[in-house]
């Protein structure tokens, strides 16, 4: 192929790309105008109650369809991510979504919030999990994002305990693949690292790697990976373990990448809000059940789910807050609370339980 032929072919392809980009731009603008019309219809038909602009079940359905219709060469998740950002920008035209997350900025929880709501959402970092709950309960934000479990380190008990005292509902979930990196700043002397900062869970997730590469370095646990990243600015002999977002946010360099001990390390986050979520077609539910301390209590709890063929995805036990509740179980299962099988199982459980609290039914994580 001659250079002239190559130039002609590339020019033709770039012309095609420009034409496609023009059409994509027109279609996105058309979708945005439809979103504005949706907002006007909702306002016109409002009876004075608060208008609900964001519908988790509807968004999940759109993303699933985008993946089902995808014919490549982009992967399904990448296609869904692009649609998520388009929906996020269009929703911001209707009504900007405000989201609180466990901060500070640069944490994996912020990354989960942006993954779920898109970059057009207005995010607010909170210093503690209970502050995220309070921010949503007060109405200052519509939704909150909190971690609930890690595939290697287990459940986040503070999140589970916060549900005991709250009437908020679970509206969604996000599963985030966790990659840990060893970060350094421009002043770090990489051959003289004697101190490594990170959150206690991240230090635990990278323990074997640290034992092999920095066995004599002091490991300092701090409140968050973002805080660890901040500390590097004035310490020439320190490094931090954190994620990609923290590296970008605080201008750090990845000295070693993907240092987590488990290659499939993931964290699950919950979206909390005040509204119940309608069925999306592929849903999950979470419930808290208190059982009396008597023989066969655990069997009485689990048997109805087996009878009605409901798949339990997680069962956790937490200490009771009062003497009346001897065992408190947090249970996740596939299905929506409005499903007949789910209702039948919960009705049977309620006959034996001291108390049942439905935390919410919500779309299973799409991405």
From TrEMBL:
Annotated Gene Ontology cellular component terms: cytoplasm
Catalytic reaction equation(s): prephenate + H(+) = 3-phenylpyruvate + CO2 + H2O; chorismate = prephenate
Keyword Isomerase tagged: yes
Chief place of localization: cytoplasm
Biological-process GO terms, alphabetical: chorismate metabolic process; L-phenylalanine biosynthetic process
Gene3D superfamilies registered for this protein in UniProt: 3.30.70.260, Chorismate mutase (1.20.59.10), Periplasmic binding protein-like II (3.40.190.10)
Pathway: Amino-acid biosynthesis; L-phenylalanine biosynthesis; phenylpyruvate from prephenate: step 1/1; Metabolic intermediate biosynthesis; prephenate biosynthesis; prephenate from chorismate: step 1/1
Keywords recorded for this protein, A-Z: Amino-acid biosynthesis, Aromatic amino acid biosynthesis, Cytoplasm, Isomerase, Lyase, Multifunctional enzyme, Phenylalanine biosynthesis
Pfam families the UniProt entry points to: ACT, CM_2, PDT
Compartments it resides in: Cytoplasm
Limits of the Chorismate mutase domain: 4-98
Feature type site, description Essential for prephenate dehydratase activity: 267
Limits of the ACT domain: 286-363
Annotated InterPro entries: ACT-like_dom_sf, ACT_dom, Chor_mutase/pphenate_deHydtase, Chorismate_II_sf, CM_dom_sf, CM_II_prokaryot, G/b/e-P-prot_chorismate_mutase, Preph_deHydtase
Keyword Oxidoreductase attached: no
Domain Prephenate dehydratase: 98-274
Function: Catalyzes the Claisen rearrangement of chorismate to prephenate and the decarboxylation/dehydration of prephenate to phenylpyruvate.
NCBIfam families linked to this entry: CM_P2, PRK11898.1
Protein name in the entry: Bifunctional chorismate mutase/prephenate dehydratase
């Amino acid at each position: 192929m001659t250079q002239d032929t190559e130039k002609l072919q590339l020019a033709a392809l770039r012309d095609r790309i420009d034409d496609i980009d023009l059409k994509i731009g027109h279609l996105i603008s058309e979708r945005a105008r439809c979103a504005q019309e949706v907002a006007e219809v909702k306002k016109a038909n409002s009876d004075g109650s608060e208008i609900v602009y964001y519908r988790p079940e509807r968004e999940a359905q759109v993303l699933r369809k985008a993946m089902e219709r995808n014919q490549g060469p982009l992967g399904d998740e990448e296609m869904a991510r692009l649609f998520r950002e388009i929906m996020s920008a269009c929703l911001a035209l209707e009504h900007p979504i405000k989201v609180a997350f466990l901060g500070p900025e640069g944490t994996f929880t912020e990354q989960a919030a942006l993954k779920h709501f898109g970059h057009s959402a207005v995010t607010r970092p909170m210093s503690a999990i209970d502050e995220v709950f309070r921010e949503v309960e007060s109405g200052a934000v519509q939704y909150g994002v909190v971690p609930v479990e890690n595939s290697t380190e287990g459940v986040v008990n503070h999140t589970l305990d916060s549900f005991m005292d709250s009437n908020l509902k679970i509206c969604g979930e996000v599963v985030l693949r966790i990659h840990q990196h060893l970060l350094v700043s421009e002043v770090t002397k990489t051959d003289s690292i004697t101190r490594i900062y990170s959150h206690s869970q991240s230090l635990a997730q990278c323990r074997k790697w640290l034992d092999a590469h920095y066995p004599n370095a002091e490991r300092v646990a701090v409140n968050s990976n973002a805080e660890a990243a901040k500390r590097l600015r004035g310490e020439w002999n320190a490094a931090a373990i954190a994620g990609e977002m923290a590296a970008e946010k605080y201008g750090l360099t990845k000295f070693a990448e993907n240092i987590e001990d488990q290659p499939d390390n993931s964290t699950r986050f919950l979206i909390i809000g005040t509204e119940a979520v309608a069925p999306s077609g592929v849903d999950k539910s979470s419930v808290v059940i208190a059982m009396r301390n008597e023989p066969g209590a655990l069997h009485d709890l689990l048997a109805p789910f087996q009878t009605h063929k409901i798949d339990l995805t997680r069962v956790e036990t937490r200490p009771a807050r009062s003497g009346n509740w001897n065992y408190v179980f947090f249970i996740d299962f596939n299905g929506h609370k409005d499903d007949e099988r789910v209702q039948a199982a919960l009705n049977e459980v309620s006959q034996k339980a001291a108390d049942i609290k439905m935390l919410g039914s919500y779309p299973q994580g799409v991405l």
